[in-house]
Amino acid sequence: GLVPCRFLTFTAHLVIVISIFWSRENNVRASLPLQCTQEQYENQDTDALPAAVEILLFISVFGLKK
């Protein structure tokens, strides 16, 4: 019972992280005003990247855990 649930949870997290990285540009643009400069975009993208990397590290540690 516990192993299939854990596998499904891991797989769901992996799919979510992949979709976040795939649509990162759209997510960053959604957090900015309609009229923004390239500098504002780059700053927001730089601010969002550590959070995405943290999620990816969490999933990799969770997946490698015995």
UniProtKB/TrEMBL annotation:
Pfam families: TMEM107. The gene is TMEM107. This is Transmembrane protein 107. PANTHER family: TRANSMEMBRANE PROTEIN 107. GO terms for biological process: non-motile cilium assembly; protein localization to ciliary transition zone. It comes from Sphenodon punctatus. The lineage of its organism: Eukaryota, Metazoa, Chordata, Craniata, Vertebrata. It comes from the Eukaryota. It is found in: Membrane. GO terms for cellular component: membrane; MKS complex. Keywords: Cilium biogenesis/degradation, Membrane, Signal, Transmembrane, Transmembrane helix. InterPro entries: TMEM107.
